[in-house]
Amino acid sequence: MCVPGCMEAVRAGLSRRGFFGRAGAAAAGFAATAVTPVPAPAATLAPRSFERMIDLTHTLGPQFPTFFDTPGIEFETRAEYAKDGYNMYVWKLLEHAGTHIDAPIHFAAKGASVDQIAADTLVVPLAVVDVVERADNDPDYLLSRDDLVAWEAKHGRLPRGCCVAMHAGFGRIAVSDPARFIGRDVDGTLHFPGIAPEAAAWLLNDREVAGLAVDTLSLDNGPSTEFGTHKLWLTAGRWGLENVANLDQAPPTGATLVVGVPKVKDATGAPVRLFAFV
Amino acid sequence: MCVPGCMEAVRAGLSRRGFFGRAGAAAAGFAATAVTPVPAPAATLAPRSFERMIDLTHTLGPQFPTFFDTPGIEFETRAEYAKDGYNMYVWKLLEHAGTHIDAPIHFAAKGASVDQIAADTLVVPLAVVDVVERADNDPDYLLSRDDLVAWEAKHGRLPRGCCVAMHAGFGRIAVSDPARFIGRDVDGTLHFPGIAPEAAAWLLNDREVAGLAVDTLSLDNGPSTEFGTHKLWLTAGRWGLENVANLDQAPPTGATLVVGVPKVKDATGAPVRLFAFV
C-alpha cells in the first residue's frame, strides 16, 4: 500500500486542498489563528508493505457505554427468519456511539459532514501516544504538548497528515468496567482522560495532522464543560475518533490507519471500522 | 500491505478456520453439498505495495434507492449548533441500505452476525467481473459460471479468499437514474442484474471465495422470488456486498478490498465504507 498522499484523488470525495482549505477558513473564524495547510503526506514517505492488521474497533451494542447515558443503538425487528425467510433490523442509532468518528460539522455552524470528509484523509499514518501511567494516576488526565514533544524526541517528527491517538489504557475497560470507563461521580460529573486544547492547538498550528483519536468517550476529558478541543479541532475541519479499541497492540509509529466510515449524507458522526496495518 | 492471509489473527475476531468451519457446517445443512474450506490466501501471494485508492462507496441519504421502497435512513435531530453548541442526529437506519454488507445471519436461522465476521476476511483480493454489455441487453441478467470461467481464462484462477464482484454498470445509475436502478415494472416486479445461484454454487464448491459483491440492489436479480444466491451464499457463512459504487474504476484483478463495516452486535447487515487499494 502506498502511503496516503500518493493515492489518486478519489472521484466522489473532496480534494485534500479543498478539505483543508475550508478547514483553515473555518478555524480562522473560530480561533483567529492561522492554520498550517496540510500537504500530501506522500512527499516524505515512500511506498511500503504491511504484514499484519490490528482491529481498533469495539463491538457496538445497546450495552456499550455512551457519553449521553442512553443506549447508543437499539434494534427494531423488521423481518424474522422463521416467519419471513430472512432476518433484518432497523437501527435507532446515536451517530456518536461506539468506536466512531466526529465530523467537523459536529461542533461547528458550518463544516464537512461525514460524507464530505475527503476519502484520502481516511487512510493515514498512525501515531500512538502512550499516557497510560499518567491516566492511571489521574482519571482526568489531559494529554499535553509536552507528551507530544516527548513522543517526537523518541520517534521523530509526527508524520504529515497523520492521526494522533491518545492511548490512555481505557480501551481495556470499556466493556469490562463501563462504570470506570464513564467515571460518573456522585455529582454527575464524568471522569476520563482527554486531549488538552493547548496540545490540539499546537498540532493544528505547528504540525500537519488530519485527525485525533482517543480510547475514551470524548476528545475532551470527562469534566470538560467547554469542549475546547472539540471546538478547536473540528472547527478547523479535522476529524476525531472516540472509543478506539486495542491501542495497546499498535506501535507508537509506523502503522497506517484505515478509517472505514459509512458515507452517510449530512451525518455529524458515524460508527466506524478502524483497521491499523503494520 | 501484506495480503490478507499473512495478517495476524485479530484479537476480537473469529479465526478464519472457525469462520469457514461454521460456514461449511451451515452450508451442508442447507444444500447438502460439501463446501471447500477456505485456506489463508497468504500461502500463494507475496507481500505487495499499493499506489492508489478507489472509493467503492455510494453516499447514503434518504433518497438513495432501496430494495424495500422505503427510505434507507431517516434523521432525528438530537442537538443543534445554534441552540446546543453542537450538532447531532439519531439515525433510523435500515441495516441493508446504501453500499452495505449482508452477514450470514441475514438469510439463515443461525449464522454469523456482522460483529462475528472474522476481521481478516474483510481485507481480501478483489476480482471484478465485467458484465456491463450483457446487462445493457438484459436488465435481469444473471452472472453465470461461464462468465467466471471466461474471467479466469483471461486473468488466472480466482485468488484464494477473494471477493468476486459483478460489475453490471449499475453503479453509474444508482443516483442519476434511480427508477432504472430499481427497475420496478407496472406489475411491481423489480428488474436488475444479479448473480446466478449456479455460479454462486460453483464458487462455493470449486473455488475459495470469501465474499460476493454486486453494483445492484441485491445478490439475486430483480425478479427473483427464491433468493437462491442469498440463501446458498450466506447460509454457507460467506458475506455479500450490495450497491457497490465505482467498479468501472477498479481493475479486473490485483486490487485489495477493505470492507470497513462498523462492528455492530447482532446486526444482519450494515452500511460499509469500501476502499480498493491498487
From TrEMBL, chains A, B:
InterPro entries: KFase/CYL, KFase_sf, TAT_signal. It comes from the Bacteria. This is Cyclase family protein. It comes from Rhodoplanes tepidamans.
